[in-house]
């Protein structure tokens, strides 16, 4: 059983994360508005699949791997920074269209909607920063079956 104080702390932090808008919310809202409820739900399933990947990585100890192999963490950190710089350049380069400019989105296939939702969540730094360290540290090591507790908490 998860200790009550750990569960309350984790639940409060998860609620705060869910209430703050981010890439997942923007993606789901834009798809739902432009393509309808069905596209929004399919995209949501992709986002949930991304959450499952993050939870599994936390449950198997990805954070411990990054502590044991600092170079892996540095590579991931720099890759994320380069990706953010590339996104920024796409928004401000000469002749670029504003990311906030209203435009029609083409109707995408079910597979593409799911995959885009999955990637949006998988590459969301807010989720990665929250889930990786907090899942493992939210539960005492003395509790049995830490993997299942971490995975079920998601």
Textual characterization of the structure:
- The protein has helices spanning 4-19, 23-35, 37-59, 62-68, 70-92, 110-122, 125-137, 146-153.
- It starts with a helix and ends with a helix.
- The mean pLDDT is 78.
- It has 154 residues and is mainly α.
- Helix 3 crosses helix 7 and helix 3 (37-59) packs antiparallel against helix 8.
- It has one domain.
- It is globular, with a radius of gyration of 18 Å.
- It is built from 8 helices and no strands.
List the keywords.
mainly alpha
Number of domains: 1
Shape: globular
Largest sheet: none
Total beta strands? 0
Uncertain runs with pLDDT below 50, 5 residues or more?
A: none
Q: What structural category arises from helix and sheet content?
A: mainly alpha
- Mean pLDDT score: 78
Q: How much helical structure, as a percent, in the residues?
A: over 70%
Distance between the termini: 15 Å
What is the strand content?
A: under 5%
Number of helices: 8
- Secondary-structure element order, N to C: HHHHHHHH
Q: Evaluate the radius of gyration.
A: 18 Å
Briefly characterize the structure:
With 154 residues, the protein is mainly α.
């Amino acid at each position: 059983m998860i200790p009550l104080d750990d569960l309350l702390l984790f639940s409060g932090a998860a609620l705060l994360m869910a209430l703050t808008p981010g890439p997942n919310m923007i993606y789901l809202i834009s798809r739902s508005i432009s393509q309808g409820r069905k596209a929004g739900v399919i995209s949501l399933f992709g986002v949930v699949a991304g959450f499952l990947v993050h939870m599994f990585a936390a449950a198997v100890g990805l954070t411990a791997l990054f502590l044991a192999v600092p170079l892996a963490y540095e590579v991931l950190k720099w890759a994320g920074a380069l990706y953010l710089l590339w996104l920024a350049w796409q928004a401000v380069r000469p002749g670029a269209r504003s990311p906030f400019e209203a435009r029609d989105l083409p109707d995408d296939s079910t597979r593409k909607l799911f995959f885009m939702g999955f990637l949006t969540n998988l590459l969301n730094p807010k989720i990665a920063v929250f889930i990786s360290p907090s899942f493992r540290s939210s539960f005492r090591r003395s509790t049995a079956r830490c993997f299942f507790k971490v995975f079920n908490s998601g």
